[in-house]
TrEMBL record:
Classification via InterPro entries: JAMP (IPR008485)
Coiled coil: none
Keyword Protein transport listed: no
GO molecular function list: ubiquitin protein ligase binding
KW Ribosomal protein (keyword) present: no
Any Pfam family matching the protein: JAMP
Single GO BP term: response to unfolded protein
Taxonomy, superkingdom: Eukaryota
Name recorded for this polypeptide: JKAMP protein
A single Gene Ontology CC term: membrane
Transmembrane segments: 70-88, 100-120, 163-183, 204-221, 227-247
Sorted UniProt keywords: Membrane, Transmembrane, Transmembrane helix
Length: 251
C-alpha cells in the first residue's frame, strides 16, 4: 500500500504578544528584531520620524510625500514670498525703482531657504524627503489625544504623526528670516536711495511682524490649512481679481 504524503500546516511567525496601547497615538517602539520575533518596549511616545501602525507599533516613516503634500508645502512656502512682494510694492510703489531688485531678492531668499530646508531634512543632503501619510485631521493635533487611563495620570504620546509636514514649515520660515536679515538690509541700503531713511526698511519691518503670525498660523491651524488650502487659493484669487478690476475701473 502506498503511503499518503502528510503535509504540516505552516508555522506562523513568532510575535511578542502584548496588550494594545491606549489612545490613538501611543505606541510601542521596536527594541530588537531576532529573525521573525520583534521585542517591543512599553507604551509611550513614538520617536521622531515614526508613527503608530494599526497594531499600535511605532514604525519608521519611509513613504514619499504625495502630490497633495507637495502642493501644501508649496502653498506654505509661497505665503511669505507673496507677503514680501506685497509689502515691498506697498512701501516702494512708484517712488523707487528699487522695487524690482527687492522682488528678485525676496524670491532668491525664499528659493534658497526652500532648498536648504530640503537638504537639512531627513535624509540629510538630499532633496528627497521621507514622510508619514496623513490619514485624518487628528494626525496634526496629537497633543489633544493623550490618554488618561485613571482620569488622573496622563500618558503623553504627542509626536509628529504627519512627519515632516508640520515641522518642516517652521524650519523653512526660520531660514527665510535669517536670509532676509543677512541680504535685504544691505541691498535696500545700497539701492533704495529714492526713499527716505524711515521708509526704505519698512518692508523688512513688516516681515518681522508677519513671520510670527505665519508661525502661529502653522502651529495652530496647520491641519486645517492642509485640508482647506485649495479653497483658500480659489477664494483669494477671486477676491484679488475683483479688487483689481474694480480699481482699474476707478482709474
Amino acid at each position: 500500500l502506498g503511503s499518503a504524503a502528510v503535509t504540516c500546516p505552516p508555522v506562523p511567525a513568532a510575535v511578542d504578544i502584548q496588550p494594545a496601547c491606549l489612545g490613538l497615538y501611543c505606541g510601542r517602539t521596536v527594541l530588537s528584531v531576532n529573525g521573525s520575533l520583534e521585542t517591543y518596549g512599553d507604551c509611550g511616545v513614538c520617536p521622531r520620524g515614526q508613527r503608530t501602525d494599526d497594531n499600535k507599533i511605532c514604525r519608521e516613516c519611509v513613504e514619499s510625500p504625495d502630490r497633495y503634500d507637495w502642493l501644501y508645502l508649496g502653498f506654505m512656502a509661497m505665503l511669505p514670498l507673496v507677503l514680501h512682494w506685497f509689502f515691498i510694492e506697498w512701501y516702494s510703489g512708484k517712488k523707487s525703482s528699487s522695487a524690482l531688485f527687492q522682488h528678485v531678492t525676496a524670491l532668491l531668499e525664499c528659493s534658497v531657504a526652500a532648498v536648504v530646508t530640503l537638504l537639512v531634512s531627513d535624509p540629510v543632503g538630499s532633496l528627497y524627503i521621507r514622510s508619514c501619510k496623513v490619514k485624518k485631521l487628528s494626525d496634526w493635533y496629537t497633543m489633544l489625544y493623550n490618554p488618561s487611563p485613571d482620569y488622573i495620570t496622563t500618558v503623553h504620546c504627542t509626536h509628529e504623526a504627519v512627519y515632516p509636514l508640520y515641522t518642516i514649515v517652521f524650519i523653512y520660515y526660520a531660514f527665510c528670516l535669517v536670509l532676509m536679515m543677512l541680504l535685504r538690509p544691505l541691498l535696500v541700503k545700497k539701492i533704495a536711495c529714492g526713499l527716505g531713511k524711515s521708509d526704505r526698511f519698512k518692508s523688512i519691518y513688516a516681515a518681522l511682524y508677519f513671520f510670527p503670525v505665519l508661525t502661529v498660523l502653522q502651529a495652530v491651524g496647520g491641519g486645517l490649512l492642509y485640508y482647506a488650502f485649495p479653497y483658500i487659493i480659489l477664494v483669494l484669487s477671486l477676491v484679488t481679481l475683483a479688487v483689481y478690476m474694480s480699481a482699474s475701473e476707478v482709474e
